[in-house]
User: Which sequence fits this backbone?
């Protein structure tokens, strides 16, 4: 199984995000949103690091019940263009957080970045702090709706879904991710 690269909708053309992702899901495919990236042919020439990275280490905080606390989650929504090199929106955001930040931040990162943008993945994963949260977006190794995934395979659907989940687990390990944001529609 290979991912579908691109996006099922742009400028009011195409089947639409929800219907497109649902169709791909039924057929046992997943989407890697890779629109707005013009250099994947160059970036995929770099060898990916297919080895487990250690997950982040959460630190226990003593909470004061008299205080209010906020959580900051910065998500790429599985859109690789947000990490597109040093000038990518989230790459610049991670870089900007490095100076004087006294609080952890949770990030999501589409784990397929390991294959599609290896040097960017190495740079990003090397800069996110060990105490920051790092989860996968948006439904695993790619964007799909589990409620529809593999429906076209009938009795083989559990096997098809299990293969997706196993692939997701492997790629979460490549990024050192220990949680996953699961997208649902319908």
Assistant:
């Amino acid at each position: 199984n290979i991912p579908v690269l691109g996006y099922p909708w742009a400028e009011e053309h195409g089947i639409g995000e929800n219907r497109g992702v649902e169709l791909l899901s039924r057929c046992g495919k997943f989407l890697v949103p890779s629109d707005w990236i013009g250099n994947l042919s160059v970036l995929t020439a770099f060898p990916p690091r297919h080895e487990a990275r250690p997950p982040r280490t959460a630190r226990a905080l003593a909470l004061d019940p008299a205080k209010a606390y906020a959580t900051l989650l910065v998500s790429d929504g599985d859109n690789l263009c947000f990490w597109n090199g040093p000038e990518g929106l989230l790459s610049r955001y991670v870089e900007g957080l490095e100076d004087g930040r006294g609080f952890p931040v949770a990030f999501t990162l589409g784990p397929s970045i390991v294959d599609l943008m290896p040097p960017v993945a190495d740079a990003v994963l090397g800069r996110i702090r060990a105490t920051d949260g790092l989860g996968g977006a948006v439904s695993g190794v790619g964007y799909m709706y589990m409620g529809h995934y593999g429906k076209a395979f009938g009795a083989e659907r559990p096997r098809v879904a299990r293969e997706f989940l196993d692939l997701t687990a492997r790629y979460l390990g490549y990024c050192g991710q220990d949680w996953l944001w699961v997208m649902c529609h319908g």
